[in-house]
Amino acid sequence: MRDMRRSILSFGTSLLAGSLLTLCVACPAHTRMPARQQMLTRRGLEGQSRQLASSLYVTPFFRDARYRLLTELPPEHVDLMRDPKGRRITPGRAIRILPAGTRVRIRRIEFPTSSAVTARSLFTPRYFTWVYLEVPQDDRLHILVMRDDPTTRAAFERALGRWLTREDRAKALAELPEEVRRAVETKQIVAGMPREAVLWSWGWPLTIQTQPEGRIGVERFLYEDGRWVEVEDGHVRAWNEAEAPPEGGEARDRTSTSE
Fold it and tell me: Which residue ranges make up each domain of the chain?
């Protein structure tokens, strides 16, 4: 009888394990990158040192106190999570700014596979790829959340180049006039700022319009949160900083020009 009980328990345990395995296998991954390309990407990039390509806000990582979030956008405009009513969930107030040129180390790259998504906190943007970084003056890992879904290692590296660069950005910043350098380090725009310094301060725009309204030599950088910068002959002519919207209201604009 005792042996029979053991056999039944053993069978039940095996059946449960098999069911859980089936459920796990049935869970869809949230990345199109094949497993081999994921492995090559991790193997090629983890442990590598880079500099920040643009200045980034440091914020709480939503409700997961173990980490920090790095973002180009002001935290009130970060759109990585929504509540059941479709309202944006913001990560929290900015803690500090890491200036462009800051040296960081890629600790780990985690793709949103079924097992990774299951292990992540519910109150985080868990359906995207996370790049874990070691940064100065903080033992906590800082996370870049990549909304892109590249399918190869080469495409992943190109996408990651939006935030991390092999170039000596710190040296390039040191060669800028003090006013411009200070603006980049605090994610501001100033009149006459060189085109590349705009990218180092605010990051890459969603769209770049060339010759808007037929104006030759003019570019307009459009950002996803409503901000824009106009560059004429390689230098900033005008810009707009969208303020955070009041509860239930619309964003307000603040426009500046060099005239």
Answer: 35-170, 176-257
The DSSP code sequence of 75-143 is: GGG--S-B-TTSPBPP-----EEEPTT-EEEEEEEE---HHHHHHS-TTS-TTSEEEEEEETTEEEEEE
* Alpha carbon distance 239, 198 (integer Å): 10
For the sheet with 228-232, list strands across it: 207-210, 218-222, 228-232, 235-242, 253-257
Q: How far is CA 236 from CA 41, 185, 196, 209, 220, in A?
A: 37, 17, 10, 14, 10
Supply the pTM of this predicted model: 0.83
What average pLDDT does range 168-172 have in this prediction? 98
- Token pair recorded at residue 248: 């239930």
Asked if 213 and 220 touch (Cβ cutoff 8 Å), the reply is: no
Which residue is it, tokens 């903080």?
A: 138
Given a cut of 50, is residue 252 above it in pLDDT? Answer: no
Alpha-helical (H) ranges within 143-216 are 153-160, 169-174, 178-185, 195-202
Residue 202 exposure: Cα atoms within 13 Å on the Cβ side = 25
The DSSP symbol for 246 reads P
- Sequence-separated (6 or more) residues with CB below 8 Å from residue 215: 232
CA separation for the pair 14, 18 (Å, rounded): 6
- Comparing CA positions, the residue from 175, 87, 102 lying closest to residue 138 is 102
